[in-house]
């Protein structure tokens, strides 16, 4: 038999055996589990909540616990756009939380699903989208083969805690594969959101076990209003928030079991994190963070999220890392791992794999991480994570938290030009700008360049007078 004939035989045998022969050797699945408003301390091992979270703990034991993972804006749509596009909000102009009919992420910016789909992956999104509610920005036309969930936050409905009239003007619908299957979501439907997303995820894994897949499970919870299925009501013994978190933990367990059952566990990268910190104005219906402030601010309590990444054979299981990186780095890092081409449009994220894998001598590839709130640029942190510069801005704080689903009362404070030493003061409690003027001047220059590029209407920050 000639060499050509032998090659043809091998090719056809591989084809008969299924795509898994080639796929198993060269391609990695990617699963992203993205929570909504979960606090840094809501799950073990990052925190010590008064309810069990065994599946997230197991994921950390099988992967790496990252303690210094950041999002560039602590609000729903902006955070999601950063994750999926690899771009800062200043580039995409996706700020805040987009409501019904919101534009979301413009198609000029490619998202991860589009990149993976072009690379032959099966793709799916389940849960909460919040990246556009227009014909050309909904998930079924943005690279996802299978879709199911809400187009925006679950509180944007007729039962809104503070303004039901405003949010009730457009019914909150449940979509599946480009079609509305529940024209107006009711409370009974909200109770099933976590369960539905999980069941869809498990089914998708089984369906696509013989080819590479990218799956984005973006849970609506624990964003208010809180709901969980009947099986978890009262299960935590500490209230509804604990029940909701236990169901999310169950969801993580079901997804991990499905990966193992279908023989793809060792060939799948899993990321578990949250879009931002807790919405503390909702009191006992909100999570916890050890850091300053919370959701809707540029302080660590808003932008520093718990993060776990499992990559069998690539990351040392059961380790803890203080590597500093941002959600905008996920796209280039994961695409680098899977050999997937990056988009033609410019992105801000960097491939941080050497850093997060603990490669000897690895250094942060980015000079800085930028933080904003709404359309206001509020400061930067050095790529090493040592220094944080807040340029003057107002921020909200909780005067009195709400209870049992009712919103609390907020006030406004102002922070002057401030420099924090995040190594020695991760709570951002002491402004050390007078002690390190040379560091401040350097960061002011970097911040002004970022501002001029993405926020040209915002005034330049003048150096402090000596």
What characteristics describe this protein?
466 residues; alpha/beta; 10-stranded mixed β-sheet; 4-stranded antiparallel β-sheet; 28% helix; disordered N terminus
Report on this structure.
The protein is an alpha/beta fold and 466 residues long. The chain has 14 helices and 16 strands. The strands form 3 sheets. The chain has a 10-stranded mixed β-sheet with strand order 6-5-4-3-7-1-8-9-2-10, with helices on both faces. Strands 11-12-13-16 form a 4-stranded antiparallel β-sheet, covered by helices on one side. A two-stranded antiparallel ribbon has the order 14-15. Strand 12 and strand 13 form a beta hairpin. The chain starts with a helix and ends in a 12-residue tail after the last helix. Mean pLDDT is 94; it is low at 1-26.
Give a quick summary of the entry.
The protein has 466 residues and is of the alpha/beta class. It has helices at residues 3-17, 20-26, 54-62, 76-85, 89-92, 112-118, 164-167, 187-190, 193-207, 240-261, 300-303, 330-338, 353-356, 437-454, and strands at residues 29-35, 64-70, 122-128, 146-150, 174-176, 179-182, 213-218, 268-274, 304-310, 319-326, 368-373, 376-382, 387-390, 393-400, 409-415, 418-421.
